[in-house]
Design goal:
alpha/beta; Purple Acid Phosphatase, chain A, domain 2; five-stranded mixed β-sheet; 6 helices; 20% helix; Metallo-depent_PP-like; UPF0046_metallophosphoest; Calcineurin-like_PHP; hydrolase activity; signal
Amino acid sequence: MIRLLLLCNIFALHSVYGNDSTVAQANNQWESIQPILSNYDLNRTCCSDDQSSISAEPDYEYPYKHLKVVVVSDTHKVNQQFQLLMDEPEYNKGDVFIHAGDFTSLGTSDEIVKFNTFLGKLKFRHKLVVAGHRELGFDPVEDLSLRAGDRTGRGTKNGFKYLTNARYLHDEAVVIDGVKFFGTPYHFQSGYPFYLDRNNKRELRAWNSIPRDVDVLITHSPPLGILDFDGKDHWGSHTLLWKDFQFKPHNYTTFINAALEKPYSNSYYHGTDRKPFVFYVRSKN
């Protein structure tokens, strides 16, 4: 069985609306750990920004059963283009639908209700949702004094309660046909919900909540050096990277950038540039 780490690389758009004050620290960490990583068998790691490296139909030979999983992130709203995309036969039904965060632009109640209505129309046995940094109001311990610009005073407190048509995962696991999924929303962009300072105790606690026996990990931030480079800087988590290497993979690890926005483009609010990811994971039941 393949262990899949579903990663949403949300940091491609920092050039549009700000910079992470600790990005220099991340770049320095990456320089220091590259020699160490040479000691690991990275041949078991597959990193994908597109669907070409993700396996299509599985081998359905008896007695194996598979879950069909469709995953997206960074849709920012439910517009006509996204709905038409999800109406395509390849994406409109399956076993598990995953949204890895940023399904709204400002976390308004109208956006959340519209997204929940959209979820209710999807033909999946299970629907899993993780919050992103644009889900304003979802973080009960957010420091609101860091908010600025159009985010000030915006969002819906406990807006996740509107998501009645999906399972909302916040540092929580769910087991489907024996496969363990775990979702966590943290990132390093100040002024948004679920913000973490790098390398402090809260970051350690955040990633330490990930169970060692997870099969599909859904995050809103990549590990350092894995699909986190915007052409200039690295935005990922050094701590999450080492957490990933603690897992005991069955065959290899696949890292997926699930964002529907084209990575490192200025496409914010301009609809989808990419297609959903479809993959199959073997059931354990």
